[in-house]
Amino acid sequence: MRQQIYCILKMKKKVLITYSLAPEGIEDLLKRSDKYEVTLPEKGTSFRRGQVLAMIPDHHVLIPNFSFYTDKEIMDTGSRLELISNYAVGFNNIDVEYATKKGIAVTNTPQSVLEPTAEFAFGLLLDAGRRISYYDRKIRIPHAVNWEVNSDVGQPFFGQTLGIIGMGRIGQAVARRAVASGLHILYHNRSRLDEAIEKLYRASYVSLDELLRKSDYISLNAPSTPETYHLIGAAEFEKMKPTAVFVNTARGNLVDEKALAEALREKRIFAAGLDVYENEPKVYPGLLELDNVVLTPHAGTKTKEARIEMARECIRNIIGFYEKTYPVSKVN
């Protein structure tokens, strides 16, 4: 009996990675070949859902990326699953409630995405407000640019008010950049921050309604939960200034995209910048027709360094979960 227990304890944990991650990001796992057996797709490819369903019964750990939906079928088929190490900070691609019922741990990558996402959000605010991408598109078309000094003007940036919805780690990283750029900060959060943090960013805590009415720029950084589904819709766009610039780098389902397209088309707000969409990789068609929205393909962390570090954080979650050598970022 002792020998049998010993064999079970020494059994390798099998890890299934759905997407081809950078070798530098997973080397810490690969070098532990005595403890882990890794299955991953060829470079530059990903496993399709059917392939994952065929392989998952034999694996203890799944690493999905932010676009791979890990639902009841995946978890029921993966009868040996113990851990889902998500390659993202958001985890709306995972049925976390069902994972909890099944006794499956779920982790995410909050540290590695922090600064890249914040700088991308800040870039979208500046781009959409000052019309940088708009000018770039127009100047490439003969005679499309109006060089008259008062035509096609953008919105001022320095000295304006930035409203941050969701003042967590990424929201605060956006605030840090805003302070350096001379913006005044309003924020709305599930709970008020400590006074010391508010002083650090010279930020004022306000209701969502007040934030929408007073902000010149709005950055959405809230998590995706049932409570935040379509948090920003037609009623919220009606409250914004006609000169407002709205940016979403959180999750697509926080925004009613049809209502946003209508607000932009009817010039009820000035501009928007989006890096996330409700039905990725599909973009709401009405948005594609507009010139006053900057659209990017979920690229907030799309640098080589950030993607490597995200993979490393995924791997540290796995090793920490089994070996207790790293802190684990659990979400359930």
Question: How would the blueprint of this fold be written?
Answer:
Elements lengths: L1 H8 L3 E5 L5 H8 L5 E4 L9 H7 L5 E3 L8 H6 L5 E3 L10 H7 L2 E3 L6 H17 L1 H8 L21 E5 L3 H12 L3 E5 L6 H7 L1 E3 L2 H7 L2 E4 L13 H6 L5 E4 L8 H9 L5 E4 L10 H4 L4 E3 L8 H20 L9
Parallel strand pairs: 1-2, 1-3, 3-4, 4-5, 6-7, 6-9, 7-8, 9-10, 10-11, 11-12
A few lines on this structure:
With 332 residues, this protein is of the alpha/beta class.
Structural account:
Helix content is 38%, strand content 14%. The chain is α/β, with parallel strands linked by helices. It folds into two domains: 131 residues, NAD(P)-binding Rossmann-like Domain (Rossmann fold); 182 residues, Rossmann fold (3-Layer(aba) Sandwich), CATH 3.40.50. Strands 8-7-6-9-10-11-12 form a seven-stranded parallel beta sheet, with helices on both faces. The protein has a five-stranded parallel beta sheet with strand order 2-1-3-4-5, sandwiched between helices. The two termini are 34 Å apart. The N terminus is likely disordered.
